[in-house]
């Protein structure tokens, strides 16, 4: 399922194999929360943009169109016409993001739908059942993501409950995968490490969940209020206790610099809405730094978004034209900017993998980590 091909310090170059293909790592997962990338980008576009894994969300697809409908349509792969690997988040992040609409109990979480207010219950078993109906390749464990900072005793109790929930997730997914009618009987479960910003809780929780010998492990509950330095510190603290022969997934992170720094510390999988969300507002990632196309100086600029970029957008359109589309509210503007940013992220990962292959990732990090964070 996962093999480390080579290392440079703590950084790892690997391959991950699942039911729908082999993924080269480190990898960025392109976020299509509701089975689509915001910005009118199709599954066919994703292939052209270098996407290896598509990520969708359990809670949102349960709310609409409903996971039973997706199952009736043959699973999420057929529904969205994507034949590559898919990871589904468990709905656990909505325990954090919809905090005003939920109540947490030992059995699970009671939500009020953000769409129509109807009552929804989701626990470990329900999350696994929904993800099984979706048929993703990687199902994430149901957990609680705490805000940073949160009181120590609360985070400790939350970690203990998340561990209990993980055992229930594993038992239920094992049961579902054994059924003859399961959409994807090779679906894998990844556990999620929590513990807020407390070193001892992070370490103990990783040790606890590593005992289940799952196909992969994620680090959750970061980039939710703490500083970048604190996030890097937590990675330094917890990753030595993560199984070395399993992929490590840093959830919801982040900027190009965050990714380079996390790869340096030993992370293999990433996801973030940043490239698509920022693109829709005209904030574009380039090898020279971050470019804001809303600036008036681009009004008569006939150059591509990034002169070093070979994406379909930069090969065809000027900064001036794309700025005009965004200012005019034309949907094409958002589509083109999202395509560029996704290409940039996927190409960044390809360059990281190449640097690791050639034993020069330390040099790559020194050259690009700070530079990619600069605003032009």
From TrEMBL:
Record's subunit section: Homodimer. Within each dimer, one monomer is responsible for RNA recognition and catalysis, while the other monomer binds to the replacement base PreQ1.
Gene Ontology cellular-component terms listed: cytosol
Gene3D superfamilies, per database record: Queuine tRNA-ribosyltransferase-like
Protein name: Queuine tRNA-ribosyltransferase
Organism: Butyricicoccus porcorum
MF annotations from Gene Ontology: metal ion binding; tRNA-guanosine(34) queuine transglycosylase activity
Its biological purpose: Catalyzes the base-exchange of a guanine (G) residue with the queuine precursor 7-aminomethyl-7-deazaguanine (PreQ1) at position 34 (anticodon wobble position) in tRNAs with GU(N) anticodons (tRNA-Asp, -Asn, -His and -Tyr). Catalysis occurs through a double-displacement mechanism. The nucleophile active site attacks the C1' of nucleotide 34 to detach the guanine base from the RNA, forming a covalent enzyme-RNA intermediate. The proton acceptor active site deprotonates the incoming PreQ1, allowing a nucleophilic attack on the C1' of the ribose to form the product.
Binding site for substrate: 89-93, 143, 194, 221
Transmembrane segments: none
Catalysed transformations (reactions): 7-aminomethyl-7-carbaguanine + guanosine(34) in tRNA = 7-aminomethyl-7-carbaguanosine(34) in tRNA + guanine
Active site: 89 (proton acceptor), 271 (nucleophile)
Taxonomic lineage: Bacteria, Bacillati, Bacillota, Clostridia, Eubacteriales
């Amino acid at each position: 399922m996962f093999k480390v091909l080579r290392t440079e310090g703590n950084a790892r170059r690997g391959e991950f194999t699942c039911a729908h293909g082999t993924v080269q790592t480190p990898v960025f997962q392109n976020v299509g929360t509701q089975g689509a990338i915001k910005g009118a980008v199709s599954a066919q576009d994703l292939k052209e943009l270098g996407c290896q894994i598509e990520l969708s969300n359990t809670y949102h697809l349960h709310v609409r169109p409903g996971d039973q409908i997706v199952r009736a349509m043959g699973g999420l792969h057929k529904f969205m016409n994507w034949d590559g690997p898919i990871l589904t988040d468990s709905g656990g992040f909505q325990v954090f993001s919809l905090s005003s609409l939920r109540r947490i109990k030992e059995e699970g979480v009671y939500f009020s739908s953000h769409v129509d207010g109807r009552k929804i219950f989701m626990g470990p078993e329900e999350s696994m059942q929904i993800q099984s109906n979706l048929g993703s390749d990687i199902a994430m464990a149901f957990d609680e993501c705490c805000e940073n900072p949160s009181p120590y005793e609360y985070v400790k109790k939350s970690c203990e409950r998340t561990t209990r929930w993980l055992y229930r997730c594993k038992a239920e997914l094992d049961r579902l995968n054994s059924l003859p009618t399961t959409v994807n009987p090779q679906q894998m479960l990844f556990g999620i490490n929590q513990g807020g910003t407390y070193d001892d809780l992070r370490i103990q929780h990783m040790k606890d969940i590593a005992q289940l010998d799952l196909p992969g492990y994620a680090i959750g509950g970061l980039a939710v209020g703490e500083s970048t330095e604190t996030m890097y510190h937590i990675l330094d603290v917890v990753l030595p206790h993560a199984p070395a022969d399993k992929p490590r997934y840093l959830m919801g992170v982040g900027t190009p610099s965050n990714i380079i720094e996390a790869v340096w510390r030993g992370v293999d999988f990433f996801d973030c809405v940043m490239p698509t969300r920022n693109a829709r507002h005209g904030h574009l990632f380039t090898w020279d730094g971050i470019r804001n196309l809303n600036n008036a100086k681009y009004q008569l600029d006939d150059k591509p978004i990034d002169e070093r970029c070979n994406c379909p957008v930069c090969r065809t359109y000027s900064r001036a034209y794309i700025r005009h589309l965004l200012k005019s509210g034309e949907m094409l503007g958002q589509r083109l900017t999202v395509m560029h940013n996704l290409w940039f992220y996927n190409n960044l990962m390809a360059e990281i993998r190449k640097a690791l292959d050639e034993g020069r990732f330390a040099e790559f990090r020194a050259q690009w980590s700070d530079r990619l964070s600069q605003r032009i």
